[in-house]
Amino acid sequence: MIINAKIALVGILLASSLFGEYEYKVENTNITISEGSAYQNKTYMYNYNRLRFRGDYIDDGYFGTLIADGVNYLGHNYIKSSEFEYLKSTRSDTPFTTQSNFEDYGDGSVYAKLYRLYGGYEDRYNRVVVGLQNISMGVGRIWTPTNLFNHKNVYALEPDEVFSVMAVSYTRHIDDTSHVSVVVSQKRDHSFKYAARYKTFLNFADFAFNAVSSNDTKMIGYEIEGNLADTGVLLRSEGAFIESTFNTQAGEEKEDFFQGIIGADYGFQNGVTAVIEALYSSREFSYDEMALNLDSEIMSNLTSSHFYTGLTLSYSFNIFLDASLLYIESFNDKNSRFISPSLTYTLNDNNSFTLGAMIQNGDSGSEFGAVDNTYYFKWALSF
């Protein structure tokens, strides 16, 4: 089925390539990083550079997108580290390889990646997309427990940089306030994952119901998002009832648990935008359990604590200078916290510079107490 979908995707792009509009964009992201090791008491200084090409095509409802990356790491100690070995082993959960092998040279290592490749058709009532794409589910700003396709990692330097899934997705707009979506994706082991979502507006809020099914996992979830009267506060919640097969020391075991968030957004008159969110998980997972399930499709749902709170603040000093702060508190036998401030200066339409940190604080043995802080300087160039 997915093979036929890939053939259809190529056919769409080739058949319609004689007409339509094209847009091209090249971006280069360069980040110099000082990062504490998660495995031993040392700090690595290295440079990460990603050269990204993006091409978009559109013609009378037909569209296509190609995003390809060339990635380079530079730093002798880092590319010899356990962290880098783990990074090299992470791959997209797709039936074919989307990136090349890492090629080491001197003090660096380089590889190429196909980040997105999809095409489709859209009209007033229908939207179909075929190919390597991002499947969006959930209403959370910090955590999205219902999204079992493209896992967002809030603790990463670039949380929205997620692997593609190879999928066919279809959305049918029933009316102006409701739609239904279905997804069929193929995993690395060539098995299939299915999803269905229905979203509608009922009097005061948007409601959505989600279902996901694969060989290892079943999930039923909900989403609610709406304004609190005329206060300007946007309230939201989502939850997932998950049953999945886990790897344990004794072998595979099936367990079920619930995970959900509740949150609110508000923009103050002085320009500050605040987001507050709380995450609850009925099951907490040990470090050993996580290590045994690194390739699990619900890895992002495996939390070390039952309860977290998160706060993000953003403020624009002027059209050139922006600041943001992410604060997460993990409530456990030993509380700990993750703090990520950043300051961004936009020089012009093509250049921006960001200075930031990821501070992990807590007692020894706590979730965020074992790893040293990370500091970084980022230069984003587009042309």
Q: What order do the helices and strands come in, and which of them pair?
A:
Layout: H1 2-15, E1 21-36, E2 43-59, E3 62-74, H2 76-79, H3 82-89, E4 103-105, E5 108-122, E6 126-133, E7 165-175, E8 178-186, E9 192-202, E10 205-213, E11 217-227, E12 234-248, E13 251-267, E14 273-281, H4 287-292, E15 307-316, E16 321-331, E17 336-346, E18 351-362, E19 374-382
Description:
With about 375 residues, the protein is mainly β. It has 4 helices and 19 strands. The protein has an 18-stranded antiparallel beta barrel. A hairpin with a 5-residue loop joins strand 13 and strand 14 (about 275-280). The two termini are about 40 Å apart. The model has no long low-confidence stretch (mean pLDDT about 95).
What descriptors fit this protein?
single chain; 383 residues; mainly beta; 18-stranded antiparallel beta barrel; 19 strands
Summarize the structure.
This protein is mostly beta strands and 383 residues long. It is built from 4 helices and 19 strands.
- Measured between the Cα atoms of the first and last residue, the distance is 38 Å
From the helix content, strand content and strand pairing, which structural class follows? mainly beta
Major sheet summary line:
18 strands, antiparallel, barrel
Total helical segments: 4
**What gyration radius follows from the Cα positions, in whole Å?**
22 Å
| Averaged pLDDT | 93
Order of helices and strands: HEEEHHEEEEEEEEEEEHEEEEE
Binned, the helix content reads: under 10%
Give the CA-based shape: globular
The quaternary state of the protein chains shown equals single chain
Low-confidence stretches: none
The count of strands amounts to: 19
Percent of residues in beta strands?
over 45%
